[in-house]
Specification:
The protein is mainly alpha-helical. It has seven helices and no strands. 77% of the residues lie in helices and 0% in strands.
């Protein structure tokens, strides 16, 4: 394992709990809090940010806070859009995901994965959730790092949630 990966892993283990708690307080939702923290780590991993030891904790918490504020703003925007669609609807009803069968939803999700995600992200998502493989198994099977597996899952789930949450009423 390279020095950068080791440093990143130590940082992840030392700061994740604190960052998660802050995100959970701001968002009030466990899954969104986990996603927010993973997004921050994915962006740090992808970027060329050099963290100074003395300020990394404050920087990481600021990144999580900013990500949470963006999520809250997106929620508001989605709620306003949904309200507008509901008001503009000539039939007075908007179909929700709750009205669809599990098979219909599954088919729509699979179609979205096939058509809208990159082939590698789609492969990783399917291996994780359809085949129930661990991150390590996926990493070994595809010859990519654990961080890359995490990045694909975070990005794939973010896109799926965005696509399917925006249609809820």
């Amino acid at each position: 394992m390279q020095d950068r990966e080791r440093q990143f892993e130590r940082l992840f283990h030392s700061e994740y709990g604190r960052m998660y708690r802050a995100a959970h307080i701001l968002l009030g939702d466990e899954d969104e809090a986990k996603d927010a923290v993973q997004d921050v780590f994915a962006r740090l991993w992808d970027g060329n940010v050099t963290l100074r030891e003395e300020s990394q904790r404050a920087f990481m918490l600021t990144c999580v806070r900013n990500r949470c504020l963006n999520i809250i703003a997106q929620r508001r925007s989605q709620q306003e859009s949904t309200l507008q669609v509901a008001m503009d609807s000539t039939e007075g009803e908007t179909e929700t995901w709750q009205d669809m069968s599990d098979d219909e939803l599954t088919m729509m999700v699979q179609q979205y994965i096939d058509e809208r995600l990159t082939p590698q992200t789609g492969r990783v998502i399917r291996m994780r959730f359809d085949d129930e493989k661990s991150y390590k198994d996926i990493s070994n099977s595809l010859g990519i790092s654990l961080s890359a597996v995490n990045k694909h899952i975070v990005q794939g789930l973010r896109k799926l949630r965005h696509q399917f949450n925006k249609r809820e009423v």
